[in-house]
Design goal:
With 417 residues, the protein is mainly beta. It has three helices and 30 strands. A hairpin with a 2-residue loop joins β20 and β21.
């Protein structure tokens, strides 16, 4: 054999051997790729339990034997550190995942536990997994709530719930509680809140005493349940925004034993008043034609005239009673004392029940106070001397007719003779 041919054969053999050796020594580590890292929940709160999942893939054309897989702690406690002490072989093109349970028993911060993969033949793979611990909870605030709560009246409280965290929270539920307070909703479920998302919830509550209304807001961060609370003070008292009935321009007239009371009733509050009625109380006795004067509804700053007829023996004053309802149907009563000796003067206020006053459509004729040509008279229309006005008009017409016919001239001539 020629010398140069021998040299060529030796070079080719060396090249093939070197390539085979390179493939044998690099394939095991080079074939394994980290294809996915999942931390659930995305951001742990202090004390939370979560999971770290690492997914690998064999990108080569031959199987790779794996002895074990582990996650080494870096401030984050690993609960199942011995789960993958024996793994096996991952075939070509296949994927495999490893899930580790971790507990954030540490301060807030970013930690880097190390994923370790021990290959059976030779070598190993290491990968640092970032895990964030951040203990900021969801934020709850009052959007609207009354300053005072009329006893046993329905009021509305609106809350806002926001998520300032970097990851979502789930199962957000608001539950109200408080001694002496009842809510039409025992709980409100808001569900999931994405990062920087806000939702609102409204509660209709009825309070019988001054107390503190507590809202418990529960939510889940992954599998971990958390709670935050919000206390809202509840003070029983009257509110200026409610209907407020004011009676003025009272007039008193007597004819025999019959007494007629007239005047105006005004809603000085900021809410509508309903089913407004005016009557008298003992010792007076309501009588026809207007024992009870029905005003109807009165909007804020609206007024209506009224007329009430009654009898009262042996008394110098009469309790004038104004009754009305609010939007929830609760009945209120306002009482003023009218002196029979001071007709037309302002009445003396008496201790009445309720805190609201009235305005709306007037009387049986349903005429709104101050509205229309006749509506401003309300039930007092009967007080106008219609007969006298009619006689004056008829007399004036008769004089004009007599003058045009010349009757007045004839009468004058006769009187001269």
């Amino acid at each position: 054999m020629k010398p140069h041919l021998c040299i060529l054969i030796l070079l080719l053999s060396a090249t093939v051997g070197a390539a085979s050796a390179a493939e044998t020594t690099t394939t095991a580590e080079a074939q394994i790729a980290i294809t996915g890292i999942t931390v659930n929940p995305g951001t742990l709160m202090r004390g939370d339990t979560g999971t770290v999942t690492v997914e690998i893939k064999n990108t080569g054309s031959s199987g790779v034997a794996i002895s074990r897989a582990a996650l080494y702690s870096d401030g984050i406690a690993v609960v199942n550190d011995k789960t993958y002490n024996s793994v096996g072989t991952i075939g070509p093109g296949n994927t495999m995942s490893f899930t580790f349970t971790v507990k954030a028993s540490t301060q807030d911060g970013i930690y880097y536990p190390v994923f370790y993969l021990d290959l059976r033949d030779s070598g190993s793979i290491r990968y640092s997994v970032p895990v964030t611990v951040e203990s900021t909870g969801i934020r709850v605030s009052v959007v609207s709530a009354p300053e005072t709560y009329p006893a046993n009246s329905k009021d509305t409280i609106v809350l806002s719930v926001g998520n300032p965290r970097e990851s979502s929270v789930n199962g957000v539920t608001i539950t109200p509680s408080g001694e002496g307070v009842k809510s039409t909703r025992t709980a409100v479920f808001l569900g999931a809140l994405a990062p920087d998302e806000e939702k609102t919830a409204s509660f209709e509550v009825t309070a019988s005493q001054s107390t503190e209304l507590t809202f418990d807001i529960s939510y889940r961060n992954g599998i971990n349940e958390h709670h935050t609370t919000l206390a809202v003070p509840v003070e029983i008292g009257e509110r200026a925004v409610e209907p407020d009935m004011v009676v003025n321009n009272i007039g008193v007239s007597q004819s025999g034993g019959a007494i007629t009371l007239t005047g105006d009733v005004t809603n000085a509050g900021l809410k509508d008043a309903y089913s407004v009625k005016v009557t008298v109380d003992g010792p007076a006795t309501p009588t026809d034609p207007y024992p009870v004067y029905v005003v109807g509804g009165l909007e804020p700053d609206d007024f209506a005239s009224f007329e009430v007829t009654c009898t009262a023996q042996g008394t110098s004053s009469i309790p004038l009673v104004v009754q009305y309802r609010d939007a929830d149907g609760k009945t209120f009563t306002e009482t003023v004392t009218v002196s029979l000796a001071s007709a037309g003067q302002a009445p003396e206020a008496a201790g009445g029940q309720g805190q609201t006053r009235i305005s709306g459509t007037g009387g049986p004729q349903n005429a709104r106070g101050g509205m229309g040509m006749f509506g401003s008279f309300g039930g007092g229309f009967s007080q106008i001397p219609l007969l006298e006005i009619f006689l004056v008009i008829v007399g004036g017409v008769a004089v004009v007719v007599a003058w045009r016919k010349g009757y007045l001239g004839q009468i004058r001539n006769r009187m001269r003779k």
